[in-house]
Structure formats: structure tokens, C-alpha cells
Amino acid sequence: MKKTALALAATFVALAAPAHANTYAIDPTHTFVTFEIDHFGTSTNRARFDKKEGSVSFDRAAKTGKVEITIDTTSVNSGTAPFDKHLQSKDILNAAEFPTAKFVADKFSFNGDKVTEVGGSLTLLGKTLPVTLKANKFNCYNSPMLKREVCGGDFETTIARSQFGVNYGLNYGFSDNVRLIVQVEAVKQ
């Protein structure tokens, strides 16, 4: 009886102990931040940022976490050099004055063990606004190559670029809505 009481007490202590978040480093070779914007209703302009870094702190048991991703806006890549220069110009990203954008989040929503949304804020052109990324995919696995746990997924949101001060082309009929897609994998440290 005494052993059962001790075992039960140990279980309560273990359950009451604070959960422990693991830290993960963003893997830049498996992480891409891309955007899409309608081009006069005929096609979709797409580009990505080639340089990004960040970290994730994640606790599945407590269903909490924190994400910080910094994006180098000078690394925008549409596949067309003249378009990249225009994207970097004062008309759009103003990369000379604002060489980074940043997403910081600490509101994780779950369905079981799967992350369904990550809420936080996006700082772009010096303005910080709330943004929620919805997960299309989320998974953690033990990487056979890295011999460590990797977590990640495909996330997306749509922002109104004019809220950040990007008004170029609105009077021509360019869309205000920009779809952001974040494909991320992070390696447990």
C-alpha cells in the first residue's frame, strides 16, 4: 500500500512538473518563404526569399511554443533579375532601408499533437501587425541523416500589403492581397 501511495505521489509530481520546451533551429535548406500576388487576373507573380534564419521552441505536451524567423528582404528571388530589383526598390520592399522582415509568434493551436495554427506578428517595412499562419501540414520525425528530431510543416496566410505601406500598383489594379507560404523544417538542438 505504501509503495502504491509513493508511486501515485510520484505520478502527480511528474504531471505537475513544468513541461519542457525543446529548441529547434530553422534548417535553411528545407525552409522557404514565398509569396504570390495576382497579376491583372491573368497570372500569378511568385517569388521567394533565399536567405532566412530563426528558431522554434516547441513543447507538444504543454501545447506551447515560440517561433522567430528573420527574412533577408535583399534576397528576394523571382527568377527574373529586373523584377527582383523592382521588388527590392522603394516601391515595394524598400530593402535598402528595411533589409529584414520578421515573424514572431507564441500562440500555437493544436489538434491532438498536430499544430494547426501559429499566431503572432509580422514586421515588414518597419510596421508590425498580427498574422496567423494556418498549417496545411505539420509533422515531427527522426531524421535518419541528421540523427535528430525534425519538426515542420507548410503554413500560409494572406495579408493586405497596403496595411504595411506597400501601395505600388493598387491604382493600376494590382491586388492588395498577398498570399504568404512558409515551408519550414527545424532541427532539434
TrEMBL record:
<protein>
    <submittedName>
        <fullName>YceI family protein</fullName>
    </submittedName>
</protein>
<feature type="domain" description="Lipid/polyisoprenoid-binding YceI-like">
    <location>
        <begin position="23"/>
        <end position="187"/>
    </location>
</feature>
<feature type="signal peptide">
    <location>
        <begin position="1"/>
        <end position="21"/>
    </location>
</feature>
<keyword id="KW-0732">Signal</keyword>
<dbReference type="Pfam" id="PF04264">
    <property type="entry name" value="YceI"/>
</dbReference>
<dbReference type="InterPro" id="IPR007372">
    <property type="entry name" value="Lipid/polyisoprenoid-bd_YceI"/>
</dbReference>
<dbReference type="InterPro" id="IPR036761">
    <property type="entry name" value="TTHA0802/YceI-like_sf"/>
</dbReference>
